[in-house]
Amino acid sequence: MRPFSAFTYIKNNKWRSAVLVLMMSFITVCFIGGMYADNPGETFRVALEGPSKYLLIEQRGNSNDSFSQFDKLKEELPSMLPSEAQTVLNINHGYCDYDCIMMFNCTTDNLVFGSEEDFELFKQRTGLVPQDVVLHDRQIALSEQLANNRGLKLGDPVKEGSSVKVGAIMDVPGMQAVQITDVSFHDSLLVISSGEVDEEKLSNDLNSLAYEIMSKYPLINAVTNATNLDEINQQISFMNYIFGAIVVLVGIVLLITINAAFTAAYDKRKHEFAIYMAIGFTKGQIFRKIASEVLILNVAAMALGAVLNVGVILVLNQVFWSSGHHFYRASKMALIGTMIAEVLVILSLILLNWRKVRKCEVTEE
Fold first, then answer.
1. CB distance 286 to 362 below 8 Å
2. pTM of the predicted model as reported, rounded to 2 decimal places
C-alpha cells in the first residue's frame, strides 16, 4: 500500500476511522424516518396496487343535487358499462377506523353487501377475498393487520354494543374489510366483471369509466384502485414536506458534528501534509487524498447503516405486528431523503476540506 494512498491513513488510524464511520452511518437515520413517514400511505398502497377489479359509485354529500345526479347516473349507467363489467350490485359503503404507525387515526373502506349471494359473487369475480372466507348476515371479515390493530378476534363485536361480529380474519395485505348486513336501503353501486375477462383491460375500462363518471357528475364519487390511490396520495402529501424538513435538519446537525470530528483529525495531520508538500505533492493531490478518505469512510458508513437499518426494521416488524403495523418494503421517499442528506453532508464536508487546503492551512504549525 502506497504511503500517500487514502487507505494508508485509515489502516494506521483504525479506531479513529471506526468512530468516523459510525458517526457518518447516522445519516441513514433518515431512512428509518422516511419509512415511518411513508408508512400510512404504504399501508393503503399494498392493498390497492393491483389492477382495479371493481368500481364503487357513491354520492358526494347528502344534498338534493347529489341525490338527483345519483338517480340520473343509475338510469344512464347500463349504457356506460364496458362489455367486461356488466354486473352491478347494490351495496353500502362504510369505513373501519384504525391507528396508523404515526399515531393518528385513519379509515379504510368497508364494502357492505346486502346478501351472502352478492358477497359470494364478489368473491368469485374479483378474487380479492380468499376463497375460504365465509360470511353470514351481520358478520365482517377483517385483514389480519386490521384485526390486530383494533384488538379483535373471531366472534368479537366490531365495536362495543354493535351487533356486527368478526366472522373471518383474512390473510390479505394492509387494512381491508368486507361485511354482510341485510338491509333494505343501499347507498352505493358496485360494478364488477361479467366473468372470465382480461384483467388489464378490465382495469383500464373501469378506471376510464370512473373518470368519465366524475367528469360528467361532479357530485358523484367513482372509486377504483387508481382513483383511490390518487386521492390518498393527495391527502397525505403533507408528510413529504414534514419529512423533507426533518431530512434538512438532520443533515445540518450531522454535518456540524461530523465536520467537527474531521477538523480535529485534520489539525493533528498538518505536519503530515506539510511533509507531503515539502516533497513535491500539490494542494490538489492532498485534497484528492482527503476527499478519497472521506468517500471511502462514507462507503463503509453506508454499508454499516444499511445493516443497522435492516436489523431495526426486522425487529420493529416483529414488535409492531401485534399492534397491526408493518414496514412492507423499502420506501422510495426514504431512499430519496437519505440520498439528499448524504449529498448534503458529504459534499459539504469535502468542500470544507477543500477550503482548508486552499488556505494553505496544511502548512500551519
1. yes
2. 0.83
